Amino acid sequence: MAISAATKAATDALAVNRAPVSVGAQEVHRWLQSFTWDFDKNRTKYSTKYHMANDTKEQFKLIAKEYARMESVKDERQFGSLQDVLTRVDAANRVHPKWNESMKVISNFLEVGEYNAIAATGMLWDSATAPEQKNGYLGQVLDEIRHTNQCGYINYYFAKQGQDAAGHNDARRTRAIGPLWKGMKRVFSDGFISGDAVECSINLQLVGEACFTNPLIVAVTEWASANGDEMTPTVFLSIETDELRHMANGYQTVVSIANDEAASKYLNTDLNNAFWTQQKYFTPVLGMMFEYGSHFKVEPWVKTWNRWVYEDWGGIWIGRLGKYGVESPASLRDAKKDAYWAHHDLFLIAYALWPTGFFRLTLPTAEEAEWYEANYPGWYDMYGKVYEEWRARGCEDPNSGFLPLQWFIENNHPIYIDRVSQVPFCPSYSKGASTLRVLEFNGKKHSFSDQWGERMWLSEPERYECQNIFEQYEGRELSEVIAEGHGVRSDGKTLIAQPHTSKDGKLWTLDDIKKIGCVFADPLKSL
Amino acid sequence: MSTSSNAYNAGIMQKTGKAFADEYFAEKNQVVHESDTLVLVLKKSDELNTVVEEILLGSHKDQNPTLVVEDRAGFWWLKANGKIEIDCREVSELLGKSYSVYDLLVDVSSTIGRAYTLDETFTITSELMGLDVKLQDVARA
């Protein structure tokens, strides 16, 4: 009987909405949407405090046939380029070694974001009630699967065709020890898929995609090209051809709630939380990868940020929505300070913690130091002279017995991990917007680097219980932890991470680390 | 180098060092400012190079004098006030092959502004589509 009812419903619908006489894709799209599926009484597993309108439109009018054709052409062009001309000209070996290392981080981390975005947009499909809005989200689910494969493929390509495969080929096995992984999971996973469905859309689509994919996936291709990498523009610009539909999905999510009373109560707080969550990680990490992970500089990171984040995303997306009550994010002032200084702070810590990574880092050269000082006045006095001291103490040489982490300990500059963002910070040696705050909950101390994360934690402290590496490995010797966390190359003793990219430089082994006798300590215990 | 206010390195971006920092950290720049501009990123390809060179900077150059196009290695970066429209029937005629709006989307990499398709036309606009202006469906045949 169920089949008869379905058949009758289809027959009735066809009687009202006659099939198009042409096969124009947009006419088919209009016809399909006119079936007016009864989603307005939709029950969802993924609730939201907002009411999403039932008549929201999809800006690009996708149908499955045109979508599949479009994406197959993208893949043909991308894989054709990679497997033909770029392999023939040995493109992967023409990449500057420093940039080769940056791509270990950028592509591996983006892969995680894309993977989680599959779930995020599936969740939004379930939450929305407008057929066209659902159609847009569904296209995005498929896009995110494609992107996950693309990111995996570019690391595979670098590993197979290029230089220093370690880190390109199996970065994820180091996820327990690498201090950048947990922060990345906060923005790329937790922020996209946990909590209120619309809040997740704001994190993923309105901020993550409409704002930060422009530096992360578009501007990165300028840096890649400048440093001899033609694979990344081929793949990343192809990824971004889907992102414009995701940005539209995020905008239409806002359109769908614009007239809901809840928007006037909650939207600005949710937007500010999403902006701070995303910028807290992307701003320092991207800046560090671009500037410290390149030999040829395109422009200061702060200018890239100012253009794509502040002027264009801020003015064209957020500013234009002002008449609908959307306000400038309250955390913008601190975000701007971070965009100027936080990547310098982070590189100082990342270099100090280099053995826990899955990539090789390089200290700035004298020429680069001049560039930094010219573009960030005050850089040398804060950072440049420290790098000179580290270099003089032989930080690149395994025989030196010196890890830069010792410098932080000797000079009483403890490194903390922000509980909410999981980003490491050193409050006594920082020029970014970080200041130390410590709160106690359920007998445990929590450190925070800013008021914005602290506010989020205060509203739901149970959400942010992730252990950081200092808590997890307290009392453990560093080489033991690296071995346990799979931070070594295929010989079982040489570290994947190294403090230089020199072909002639010696590579550090577990024995070199063990001789130093570095033991993890939780700085919160001494407070 | 373009002197337009829409250029890639316009305004504050031309400054360096302390001069940049002073303006960047100025009190007036600690909140976002509404902009009626839009940004379009086009992946370089045989077809998109033709769209940029022959249409946007060629036959249609006078339609939007605020449009700036810059070559940024792997992509074309475009910024304008108001809107940019690309009619794919016109592109198809120029290329001498079938070229739909979905073919165009193969190489449209990023949009800052409200972008949409209607029939064979791609539009990106500073208007708030769906809020101030209703999004249209293709007309019934």
Question: What this model shows, in words?
Answer:
The longest helix of chain A has about 30 residues, at about 260-290. Helices cover about 60% and strands about 5% of the residues of chain A. In chain A, the strands form two sheets. Chain A has a two-stranded antiparallel sheet. Chain A has helices at about 1-15, 25-35, 65-90, 95-125, 130-160, 180-195, 195-225, 230-255, 260-290, 300-320, 330-350, 365-375, 380-390, 405-410, 450-460, 470, 480-485, 510-515, and strands at about 415, 425, 435-440, 445-450. Chain B has about 140 residues and is an alpha+beta fold. Chain B has four helices and seven strands. Chain B has helices at about 15-25, 45-60, 90-95, 100-105, and strands at about 35-45, 70, 75-80, 85, 110, 115-120, 120-125. The termini of chain B are far apart. The interface between A and B is large, with 75 and 56 residues.
Q: Which terms would index this structure?
A:
heterodimer, A: 527 residues, mainly alpha, two-stranded antiparallel ribbon, two-stranded antiparallel sheet, 18 helices, 4 strands, globular, B: 141 residues, alpha+beta, four-stranded antiparallel beta sheet, three-stranded antiparallel beta sheet, 4 helices
Oligomer: heterodimer
Outline the low-pLDDT stretches of chain B: none
Q: Which word captures the global form of chain B?
A: globular
Quickly give the structural class of chain A.
mainly alpha
**Biggest interface between chains:** A-B, 75 and 56 residues
Total of helices of chain B: 4
Provide the gyration radius of chain A in Å.
25 Å
Largest sheet features of chain B: 4 strands, antiparallel
What low-confidence regions of chain A span 5 or more consecutive residues with pLDDT below 50?
none
Which sequence of strands runs across the widest sheet of chain B? 2-3-1-5
Distance between the termini of chain A: 71 Å
Distance linking N and C termini of chain B:
47 Å
Radius of gyration of chain B: 17 Å
Return the string of H and E elements of chain A: HHHHHHHHHHHHHHEEEEHHHH
Shape of chain A: globular
Order of helices and strands of chain B: HEHEEEHHEEE
